Amino acid sequence: MIQKLDAIGGQALRDIAAATQLDVLENVRISVLGKKGALSEVLKGLGTVLPEERPKMGAAANEWKRQIEEALTIQKDKLESAALNIQLAQERIDISLPARLPHRGALHPVTQTTRKLLQIFSRLGFDPMTGPEIETEFLNFEAVNIPKDHPARDMQDTFFMGPGVVLRTHTSAVQMRALRSKKWPVRIVCPGAVYRSDHDATHSPMFHQIEGLWVDKNVKMSDLKGTLEFFAQEMFGSESRIRLRPSYFPFVEPGAEVDVSCFLCKSKPVDTCKVCKGTGWLEILGAGMVHPRLFEMAGYDPGEVSGFAFGMGVERIAMLLHHIPDLRRMFDGDSRFLTQF
Ligand code: DAH
Q: Is residue 275 part of a domain?
């Protein structure tokens, strides 16, 4: 009987050690220690053993039982922790994957350029001023000397909002507001959106301008030139020069278109220059000496005061500075474009 016990016990320990699955291990347990298990069957036969032999047999059987149970516990722990490790490895989160970053906003190039312009002119004593984008036809046109059937009206295809009310076509509409609301001296810059019924790669129905106006005793053309030269050098670099070409704007006399020397190819213009296309000059703004008719309309004495005005497009300056070829990109709202500035 002892031999039988040893055979069962030895086989059980080997089976336990060989079990690689928890259910296999459980089957081993049942087949040895279960009600009808091998060891239990042997113990049932204990009654047939001689009484003096019984304690010895019982002790041997119990010792096998203890060893088998211990081996089962150890093997079970081993299999359970192996299974847990596999599960942990499968559920691991890969923290080395690059994260999806949230898009960060930034100031629009038009806003950046407007702020820079205001800052430059503030150093010359120009105060910022704003006017409404929905403007009277009178202030947008008549008040800056563009009467009803003046051909200059056709130059600025106008959005009409209602009788006598338009979306302002230029920031020059603030000139009369400034003159009327203040006693001279007037020295203001007015940034803002303007509207024209026009849409292609170089025209947008909405764009931005900045208007300047300086009215005082004895303001001269040379003051205009000095002011714009300072602006050009602050905006485009200290080597910048300007040139004035005679031109016509109804609200100034004389009027001029003002060019700034190319900040990219500088004094040696090259045909391949991306900014000036080889001309060496950039058309930047319109300017001139305030027309006496505006002073009359505002109730000033043209013999007592004089002044200059200028106006420029903000998008155009931003596009030149950043080499942006298509105006429409400015208004797409594409963050891949906008975050470059
Ligand atoms: N208002 C003009 C335009 O929209 C720009 C302009 C030209 C403004 C000459 C001025 C000026 O003040 O003197 O094209």
A: yes
Same domain, 74 and 173: no
At position 73, the amino acid (one-letter code) is T
308 CA → ligand 1 middle, Å: 11
- Residue 99 domain flag: no
Residue 267 in this model has a pLDDT that exceeds 70: no
Does residue 98 lie in a domain region?
no
Give the dihedral of Cα atoms 20, 26, 29, 31; nearest 10 deg. -100
- d(C-alpha 66, C-alpha 312), whole Å: 98
Structure tokens at 7: 């055979």
Structure tokens at 170: 């230029």
Q: Pick from 90, 122, 141: which residue ends a domain?
A: 90
Q: Percent of the chain having pLDDT more than 70?
A: 99
Q: Is the CB of 286 under 6 A from ligand 1?
A: yes
The verdict on 113 and 86 lying in the same domain is no
Nearest CA to ligand 1 atom 8: 311
**Token pair of 61, please?**
């059987």
Q: Look at the pTM and tell me if it is higher than 0.70.
A: yes
Domain that holds residue 30: 2-90
Residues 58 and 186 in one domain: no
Q: How far is the CA of 312 from the centre of ligand 1 (A)?
A: 7
Q: Which of 120, 129, 117 is nearest to 190 (CA)?
A: 129
Count Cβ atoms below 10 Å from residue 20 Cβ, excluding itself.
11
Q: Tell me the pLDDT band of 240, cut-offs 50, 70 and 90.
A: very high
Domain containing residue 315: CATH number: 3.30.930.10
CA separation for the pair 176, 298 (Å, rounded): 7
CA dist 283 and 267 (Å) reads: 16
Whether residue 116 is found in the same domain as residue 61: no
Q: Which residue puts its alpha carbon closest to atom 5 of ligand 1?
A: 311
Query: What separation in Å is there between the alpha carbon of 36 and the centre of ligand 1?
Result: 107
